[in-house]
Amino acid sequence: MNFMGTTRRNFLTVSASVGSSIVFNLALPSLAHSAGTNEKLAHEIASWIVIHNDNSVTVRIPQMELGQGISTALTQVIAEEINLELSLTDWEFYDPLTNYKRKNVYVHTYTGGSFGMKMLFSPMRIAGAQIKEMLMLAAARHWDTDTRGLVIKNHQVINTATDASVGFGELSAIASSIPIPDPSKVKTTTQNNWRYIGKPIPRSDAHDKSTGKAIYGIDLKLPGMKYAAVKQCPVFGGSLVSFNSTAIKSFQGVQKVVAIKAGPSGYTVPSFFYEVIDWQMDDAVAVVADSWWEAQQALDALPIVWDEGANKDVSSTQIEKKISNELMQQGEIIRQEGDVDSALLKSEKTIKSRYYYPFLEHAALEPMNCTALIDNGRVEAWAATQYGDEALRITAYAAGVAPYNAKFNLTLAGGGFGRRLHSDYVSQAVQIAKEMEGVPVKLIWSREESMQRSFYAPVMTTDFTGGLDADGNITAWKSHVCQGRSVYQPYAMSRMVYPVPNVKIEYSTVKTPPPYAWMRGVGHTQALWMYHGFVSELAELAGIDSLTFQLQLLDEKKVSKTAPEYSNLGVASSYEDSVSRVKKFRERLLHVVEKINEGSDLNNLGSFGYAVFDMSYAPGLGSSIIAIAIEIEMSSNHSALKIKNVMASVDCGLAVNPQLVESQIVGGIVFGLSNALYGEITLENGKVQQSNFHDYPILRLKDTPSIEVYIAPSEATLPNGIGEGAVPVVIAALVDAIHTAGGPRIRKLPILKNDISLFT
Amino acid sequence: MAKFVVNGKPVEVTADPNMPLLWVLREKLGLTGTKFGCGIAQCLACTVHIEGQPVPSCQIPVKDVEGVEITTIEGVGEETLHPVQEAWIEGNVPQCGYCQSGIIMAVIALLEHNSEPSDAEIDSAIGNICRCGTYPYVRKAIHAVAELKKTTAV
Fold first, then answer.
1. Do A93 and A68 share a structural domain?
2. pTM value?
3. A78: domain CATH number?
4. B77, B132, B138 member nearest A415 (Cβ)
5. Chain A residue closest to B82 (CA)?
């Protein structure tokens, strides 16, 4: 993908690629190519770029391009430091095997948590500065001089004293042999000279994605390739007893039926979340055929006997009951300030409420898929995954070879949203390839399989109790959250920003059968609208509108100096952290209030809802502050809803590419609205009941409101995350607006299951 | 053996007569710009033109396209980009991009019989799913093409 609107090198040979342990002389589409190209034509510099003999540069991107535009934005960052021309620059995915061999040289390869730019901005600037110095030193050596008076321009080093110039291509061999400079000694660029950082550089992939040329995992072509369709046990945790392949003998094109074993589909996550996640997939059966349609037809007709196991009777109703029972027990106290029980007794008014959110599935539009080939004790696989390092480990593990004998190639993703952090489909494809030695096999999941055997955002239920004094101030705040199978995520409730005097937050979990996934917005998606809704209930009890009440709460004078610090993911909260958040939240909220009023049609004014949040997990660990105002219209009997306008005000620190920031906020808003209106996965007899987009709807164009995004000017020198933050905030704002419009108090999502429909 | 015309070129394909056109295009003819998303005509990522009409190719058995003319995303803007594609690039419309081939095919068909669609007409013509939520950009780009057509026509 490049910035010129055409793919400069359409086909590359993978042979002789850097760090390659497997040699295929196959012509692969440009996006399937991995680190390095033909050695004769190109030199790799400091792992991060490749210089070609025509002076052009390919940048290595250690993140999955899911649509968030990280490939464009990170290219901007490194191009800034080296002073590259975008017309002579393209990018490719990093090679997980190279990263394995070079001990995480690419720093942060996990694409999740809105952390990509935040984690890679400084490392890639430093890498760029190192590369720039290497090129200068190479030119100095080339001319047998020193680096004084040398500048980089148009992919050449120019000696300003002599006017001599030498191209990157000519320098690349020398540059690649120069020791990488000490990262603490190189000088990065200064902000006032930036050409690319902070600019709305057009997406490098817009051309290929508008012409059908972009190659996703599902589009990969290899000579002699066969296709596989797969079916996992429909009940989570079930196992395979037998299948009768003679029943599909007459089916055209069928090559083989393969039993796939249950096992790990991922087992580590980096950095902040310290636990090891046991991501399991169950037994499955795959049919390999000459075409995918034939494989799927045969699979549908294949008699399979499953042992559905312990979860075969589980239903969503049962899970709700189980959670209900758990909420009657004492949970783990994750935050406690003051004495909530005596404060409640002394309160003038008290109120209790329960909020519920169902399981959700990501529904990335490109179904799960992976292509794999096993030959001569080596394995190579191709897929879109949000964690290539993990996919490499799973590839090696499933093939039963050492990572050095495995190769994993990243391809573009047709969406991810957290689903592609799991490598279950990679393990399956490799297990199939093992039975098809020497033949590349492309595994594609049907939509039904993708929806019914996914990893799910967990169910969550919260009980709230709150108290007010005679003046309508909150005196006590008690909540007990219980979620289904998940990782430990107390932050979702405990990072509530509102300063209230007596707080007790309890946390519980129950075991639920569906395996857990992070999903765009993570635990905040479940939690924010719940406690935001309860704040609105307290506002109503106090006789104040919810916006005024929110603004009154967002007052740093209300932050207690004596409140004990609470621990969250091992990081303590503090008075300073709370004050800073309260101030910034108020500023964003006031801004969005002002903006939506400016933008509304005064003759036809709807009802408004407001929310603000920062995706905080712990002090200093979160993402951008996003405030959202939403304008809706409801029918006179409050049974129908139209979402008219959404205004977002974003403080994302340094906006590396404002156009991409805007797109991510818009996308997050649409994603959040889909969740809020429609999102629900239910279980019956242990099976997921939804199967495709007819019963798991996604917001469409006709119901999408007009959306405006305002990016606040910032003095910050570092960027903050923007991928997820809009999701929880827009849900909270919409629920708020429905009540303000005279509609029902939404305590259970999705909204359209509350006797409300959409009108256009 | 099915015979039909794809992007102006006659093709002959050996395939099960019931195989959906989508899979014939993708696997037999190597035209992977047309995407598989649901298989039940819900997401419309597989939209192609059959005799100029936008149709979800996952629903059309190959036996039904005998002798007809089909256009896929690869067939628009082969020499120079189609104005819709230009507007898409100019407007930075795609995110993951997976749905965009289908959306672009639907938009081209819409603009061919309605060069200046209203918002309501856009709403009813473009039913495609975009999970990334590019809809506001899609709408804006459609209006931009219409506007461009108007100004260049004068």
1. yes
2. 0.95
3. 3.30.365.10
4. B132
5. A211
